[in-house]
Write a structure and sequence with these properties.
The chain is of the alpha/beta class. Helices cover 44% and strands 15% of the residues.
């Protein structure tokens, strides 16, 4: 038997279950990316990178931050980000995935408890596999379930620190976490809230600083602001107390042992933060697209989320995959999301709204979705 047989068999199994993933080229109108503010191809970002390169900023960091990879552009971004988000300190990671793994694996200690939302991102689950703390899951967006889990742990003798892990805006469901309630629980229990702002940064709240905007600077809040979505660049910024940031520099393996992010990318992220601060009209334009989609989805009997992420649950993997193919054939780049990314039986179309499409094109997509749903029901 070929040494590759088990991998080929596994792929065949994924194919039978309509779960096999493939890389496909970009084509059609963008209803799949996370480039919510349309910044990825922004001339301002391109100019910022070109100007940084012209003044001698290197493409590669050439080492980890603790060796020779630390560059003034990294430090300038972190200082500017801390001011922008209203936090004591910020730390720049190469990716949001790495940042979440680092937080969950490094910060909770033996004797602590991590209570995570049932639908948190795979990166948080990866960190949980490395933590020495106890772990418990709480029902999705149910603040009482988080409090109950902590109280039950205390009643059983838990004396450490409780940590709550949640996303502020869920990437596959498009719904918002009860951030204020979760933070209040963390503070009342002498714990911390680890808040993944990946899909809220740049888009929410009043000034694009995320759904935890009103609480940044509080001792119990540690946030991850991904730079590769609405900010149009790459990497992630962890914001929080100085002691937490310094601890991560000393104990977080994804930071210590990784080559530092490109200094040119740090320059790009600085410009992204300025665009978010100086061009609120981008958020207004995105809200207008959300309103169009919400109104038209409501007519179809699809509950609108009121955010830029709009799932259309189809249930069966094959049904979702076929619907996505039909939309793509009609010129709309809308993707099917299947297990294990989402729970079994909840395969869906994930409609991502960005400034890369017009309001009329959003309306046209929803009309096409209506046709696909009618065909699927026939």
């Amino acid at each position: 038997m070929s040494r590759l047989a088990r991998f080929e068999a596994a792929l065949a199994g994924l194919e039978r279950r309509s779960q096999r993933r493939r890389l496909i080229p970009r084509a059609g109108l963008d209803f799949a990316s996370n480039d919510y503010l349309g910044l990825a191809a922004s001339p301002r970002l391109a100019t910022a990178v070109a100007e940084a390169a012209a003044r001698g900023v290197p493409v590669g960091a050439a080492g980890s931050r603790l060796l020779r990879g630390n560059h003034p552009e990294h430090e300038a971004l972190e200082a500017e980000a801390a001011r922008f988000f209203g936090a004591e300190r910020a730390l720049y990671f190469g990716a949001g995935y790495a940042a979440n793994v680092a937080l969950v694996a490094a910060l909770p200690q033996r004797g602590d408890l991590v209570v995570h939302d049932a639908l948190v991102h795979a990166s948080i689950h990866e960190g949980l596999r490395s933590t020495k703390a106890e772990v418990a899951a709480a029902a999705h967006n149910d603040a009482q379930a988080f409090e109950d889990a902590i109280r039950a742990w205390r009643a059983q003798g838990g004396r450490g620190t409780p940590w709550i892990a949640a996303e502020s805006l869920y990437s596959m469901d498009g719904d918002m976490a009860p951030v204020a309630d979760l933070l209040a629980i963390a503070e009342a229990q002498d714990g911390f809230l680890l808040l993944d702002e990946a899909h809220a940064t740049g888009v929410f709240d009043a000034t694009g600083r995320g759904l935890g905007e009103a609480f940044e600077g509080r001792e119990a809040l540690i946030s991850v602001h991904t730079c590769g979505k609405a900010l149009g660049a790459s990497g992630a910024l962890v914001t929080g107390p100085a002691a937490i940031v310094d601890f991560l520099v000393n104990r977080a393996k994804p930071f210590i042992y990784a080559t530092a992010p490109s200094p040119l990318m740090a320059a790009a992220v600085r410009e992204s933060l300025r665009i978010v601060a100086n061009e609120p009209e981008r958020r207004s334009a995105l809200k207008a697209r959300i309103a169009v989609a919400s109104e038209r989805l409501g007519r179809l009997g699809v509950a609108p989320t009121g955010t830029q992420i709009q799932p259309v649950i189809l249930g069966l993997n094959a049904r979702a995959a076929q619907a996505a193919r039909r939309l793509q054939a009609a010129g709309f780049d809308c993707r099917a999301i299947r297990p294990p990314t989402v729970p079994e039986g909840t395969a869906r179309l994930r409609i991502s709204l960005t400034l890369n499409v017009s309001q009329d094109e959003v309306a046209a997509l929803i009309d096409a979705v209506a046709e696909v749903l009618t065909a699927a029901a026939a």
